[in-house]
Design brief:
It contains 11 helices and 10 strands. It is α+β, with helices and mostly antiparallel strands. The protein has 3 domains: 7-118, Butyryl-Coa Dehydrogenase, subunit A, domain 1 (Orthogonal Bundle), CATH 1.10.540; 121-228, Butyryl-CoA Dehydrogenase, subunit A, domain 2; 245-379, Butyryl-CoA Dehydrogenase, subunit A, domain 3. Helix 1 packs across helix 3 (65-78), helix 4 (80-100) packs across helix 6 (230-244) and helix 6 (230-244) crosses helix 8 (278-306). The structure holds flavin-adenine dinucleotide. Flavin-adenine dinucleotide binds at residues 88, 121-125, 130-131, 155-157, 203, 208, 357, 360-361, 363-364, 366-367.
């Protein structure tokens, strides 16, 4: 059922699925309970080419955005938390290096990320700056030939385990999009520290934490892109990230649909499988319909991205639709499972806890809504104050 949109990727999908079912799935409960990223699984996956497939071939990737989407769906079908961490490393960190880095930065950072030897993270959010990203106060100032950084980032995926960090800071006194600069930092730099993994509701396989910068001194070679252009750069890379992010919701929804159909046929009440009741069929039909429509839209969006088209409105629509869908799908799946769905022994409760992140991370549903309205006004010739 899930092959038809990218039939030429059928073999990749089957291989990733087999690997994830045989290797990733069994470690899921322990990762969930202990809050640990399954590093060994990640390294094996990287050796098979399942990390950084979208990154340039010359650094070890496959230069293939659709392959990345297929892997993304398949990872999330099994364990969203695992994919959140993979993604912070090979998309949020590495895609920015691939897009804005110097040849030397690309040679230094991309191959070990793609090989799974190193882990990256991307740090924008701060304790007082979330949706309002331009309000960051982490600051950079010139110091000798380089810069000195001070500030605190929070909710950063992979911070507790990362080797490499992309940190966005601003020049004191700068406003709006001006004065932002992006730095690549490495663990071990004096003044850079990370906190313990935060305790959270779901996605436990993905460690989340703080990054603290106290008089961190870096040279010019650690600037990613142009000094002062960091916040503009961030907006440029958001389209690709937002086009891929709905595949998280899609992968989790695929899993919930499959589990629900199977369970509804196995579970009998009032002398018949619950699958035969129309109220159950309605839930299944709606899950399948939403899933199929958003998948078609998202694969089409990837084609637009490949052609270099701007997809700000479309990406926000895809992210909003898909993340609302997965909130609903996980709830409906739990309903179909009844009391068993509430039990940890069954897979739905972890999908539901994990998926709740998807209306928050990478821009909340409210922010996607504002982006859509702004773009629609703009495209129809109205500007919004
Ligand atoms: C598990 C996890 C992993 C994360 N990983 C990363 C990461 O790797 N790197 C990183 O930089 N960040 C990361 N984040 C942070 C994430 O991007 C932010 O949580 C998100 O952008 C929302 O910011 P906030 O939590 O401060 O909420 P707030 O911005 O405080 O929002 C609170 C509520 O107010 C609403 N709201 C805010 N502004 C408006 C408005 N103008 N109109 C209407 N409603 C509004 C929001 O939609 C939300 O419902 C992660 C978060 C989590 C939970």
């Amino acid at each position: 059922m899930f092959d038809e949109l990218a039939p030429e990727y059928g073999e990749l999908r089957r291989n990733v699925r087999r690997f994830n079912e045989e290797v990733l799935d069994p470690v899921g409960p322990a990762a969930d309970e202990q809050g640990k990223f399954p590093l060994e699984v990640f390294r094996q996956a990287a050796k098979l080419g399942y990390v950084g497939a979208h990154l340039p071939e010359e650094y070890g990737g496959a230069g293939d955005l659709v392959a990345k989407a297929v892997i993304y769906e398949e990872n999330c079908r099994i364990n969203l938390g695992y994919n959140v961490s993979v993604n912070a490393s090979d998309l949020l960190f590495a895609n920015n290096v691939a897009k804005f880095g110097t040849p030397e930065q690309k040679r230094r950072y991309l191959p070990p990320i793609i090989a799974g030897d190193k882990i990256g993270c991307w740090a924008l959010t701060e304790p007082n700056s979330g949706s309002d990203a331009l309000s960051i106060t982490t600051r950079w100032e010139p110091a000798g030939d380089g810069f000195v950084l001070n500030g605190q980032k929070t909710f950063i995926t992979n911070a507790p385990i990362a080797d490499f960090f992309i940190v966005i800071a601003r020049k004191p006194g700068s406003k709006g999009l001006e004065g932002g600069t992006t730095f690549i930092l490495e663990r071990g730099l004096p003044g850079l520290s990370t906190g313990e993994p935060m305790k959270k509701m779901g996605c436990m396989a993905s460690p989340t934490g703080e990054v603290v910068l106290e008089d961190v001194k870096v040279g010019r070679e650690q600037v990613l892109g142009e000094v002062g252009a960091g916040l503009r750069q961030m907006l440029k890379s958001l389209d690709v990230e937002r086009c891929l992010s709905p595949f998280s919701s899609i992968g989790v929804s695929m899993a919930c649909l499959e589990h629900s159909v199977r369970y509804a046929h196995e579970r009998s009440q009032f002398g018949k499988p619950i699958a035969s009741y129309q109220l159950i069929q309605q839930k299944i039909a709606e899950m399948a319909m939403n899933l199929e429509i958003i998948r078609a839209y998202c694969y089409q969006l990837l084609e637009m991205v490949k052609q270099g088209k701007s997809v700000t409105r479309q990406a926000a629509m895809a992210k909003l639709f898909a993340s609302r869908m997965v909130t609903k799908t996980t709830n409906e799946a739990l309903q179909i499972f009844g009391g068993y769905g509430y039990m940890k022994e069954y897979p739905i409760e972890h999908h539901l806890r994990d998926a709740r992140l998807l209306e928050i991370g990478a821009g909340t549903s409210e922010i996607q809504t504002l982006v859509i309205a702004r773009e629609v006004y703009k495209e129809l010739g109205f500007s919004r104050k």
